[in-house]
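Bench log, entry 3. Co-assembly request; chain sequences pasted below exactly as received.
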Amino acid sequence: MTMRDVIQAAFFAVVVRPIMKLIVGIRVHGREDLPAGQFILVANHASHLDTLTLLSLFPIRDLVRIRPVAAADYWARNPLIYGVARLFFNILPIPRRGITRGNNPLEIMARALEEGYSLLIFPEGTRDYGEELGPFRPGVAHLLRRFPRIPCIPVFLKNTGRILPKGQFLPVPLFVDVVIGKPIIFRGDAQVEDILRLLRKKVMELSRHADS
Amino acid sequence: MDFKGAFLNLPEPALRLLVFVLAFLMGATAVVFLIGKFIPESLHRELVDRVKAWWIIVGVLTLAIGLSRELTIILFWFISFWALKEYFTAIRTRPEDHLALFVAFFVIPTLQYLWIWNRWYIMFLIFVPVYAFLSIPFFLLISRNPRGFILSSARIHWGLMAFVYGIGHMAYLVNLHHLHDPDAPYSGITLLIYLIFVAEISDVFQYIFGKLFGKHRVWPSISPGKTWEGLIGGGLTATLFGYQFRSLTPFSPPESIFVSLLIVILGFIGGGVMSAMKRDLGKKDFGYILPGHGGIIDRVDSLCWAAPIYFHYIAYFHGHYLLITGARS
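Structure output for the full assembly:
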């Protein structure tokens, strides 16, 4: 355990968990489908609250092996923001534009998986679509093809975009519904488009479950 | 039996009632445990969940009310907050409502409970119906989108009236004291306990009578669970208990029957209103803070309606010897 791990654990135990329990109130459906080992978690994205919500699903001692994939142009735009995001959430910054051979986001994520980390990925790549589900960007499919042994967990997050939408800084503490789907194993020879289509369809299905 | 000062600073009639409730709960627990073999599995699980939830409710209420006035007010503030969470999560809101919702969640309930804490009676009475009513549309104006403006104003203010104003009346009860007789066996605290006791006994026995004998539905299109058999059986049981435990109140014997019936009928209407709302939203219940009980709203719906009328009945007919206004008026 490094100093960073200890600080993150303390931050979650003292700040994040109590806020999530007493003010936000997360309702989880299908928690038993969270795998014990390494995973790639795929969720819709509407709010900064999404990462907090997903991280608080796991026991605090497991946080050291989970890295939320984050846009470098936003979360690493200056050293202070990057330092805080790295310290408390252990983000894995990847570039969204200006991609070259040297900073290929796929390689960055693949390296983290090889080091044994689990990843949280928002394939919409932005919070712009709000409560709607936007198109998925293909990186996640390439990654899943390359690591066919790592299960993919589809997750739908409901209401985070109503609680803390993009551009707002005051939260409206509605309940968050987290719907966790069954882990999916993709084959190494599956088509990228098929993987994307299936993943998006799964997340859509989970969103209907949240309404009932 | 003399319980005075035995534990918690509750007056003696309240302690007697507590002993009765605890005995009743133990009996209910034993019965549910024993009949487990003879009833369907799903019904048994529901009953176990309900009894468990009642232990939690009774425990939390007893500790808060028994320990201090301030703790009771904080508890009701939290109940208002949680009910608002369930309500605003369930209804449709616009992105433009964000600021008004923030104010409705954090500013208005906090101020309302601050007036209650400070015994500022007039402000407690007018704050939500006047100031919240006027300020919510103002915060909606800031978004500059007139589409859905009336609906948003109405939805937000409706939630504040039911869950902040209505529930707040229960909290304000703890401020009441006898003006001339500090040793009176009743006070605001016992009046609050009496209200919750009669309303909840009515709910519980409506459920039991409904399950055992329920045939004729009162509002078939709104609530499948509310039957005439349940209402009459539960209402009469609650009235009987209300009469029995009238020493928690200044009510004369016939008056205690009248007030208990009032609580029963208003509670029944409150339950019906929330059922209609759930039907409108297409939901079965509002959340699941307590197993077997749905959300907080499903538990306090009857009290939201009964509390204000009960409070103002007391203020009007018994207010001349009960301290209501406090230091400021």
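Helices of chain A lie at 3-24, 49-55, 72-75, 79-89, 105-114, 139-146, 160-163, 192-211. Chain A has one domain: 3-211.
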